[in-house]
Amino acid sequence: MIEHRRPDNVDIVDIAVPGDTTVQKEQEKVDKYQNLARELERLWKVNTNIIPTVVGALETTPKSLEKNLKRAGTTVSIELLQKAALLGTALIFGKVLDIG
């Protein structure tokens, strides 16, 4: 008989690309998922980590971004994330302004 398996740890990763130079969204992300994390811990008896990932559209990043990327287990460079955020923002602006 094989018993069901469940994870020992659950990581909740939320990515934000704010449109301005403020990157104070990290605490918002943690607060947003705090109740879910508590419920997962209570119901499933697992360790839960909330990992906010914030990359500013204008290339501004919080000091904790590198630490949070390591916690999420990714090897993506901050420079690549900044480039993707900037290109994605340009694409959205192009569609909104109907120029691209």
What does this structure look like?
The chain has 100 residues and is of the alpha+beta class. It has helices at 26-44, 65-71, 78-96, and strands spanning 9-16, 47-54. It has a two-stranded parallel sheet with strand order 1-2. It is elongated and about 60 Å long. It starts with 8 loop residues before the first strand and ends with a helix.
Short description:
45% of the residues lie in helices and 16% in strands.
Structural topology:
Elements: E1 9-16, H1 26-44, E2 47-54, H2 65-71, H3 78-96
Parallel strand pairs: 1-2
Helix/strand/pairing class, anyone? alpha+beta
Rg value: 17 Å
> Any idea how many domains?
1
Across the major sheet, the strand order is 1-2
Mean pLDDT: 86
Q: Percentage of helical residues? A: 40-55%
| Secondary-structure element string | EHEHH
Any low-confidence stretches, pLDDT <50, length ≥5? Answer: none
Straight-line N-to-C gap: 58 Å
Instruction: Give the overall shape, derived from the CA principal axes.
Output: elongated
Biggest sheet details: 2 strands, parallel
Count of DSSP E strands?
2
* Strand proportion: 15-25%
Q: Provide a count of the helices.
A: 3
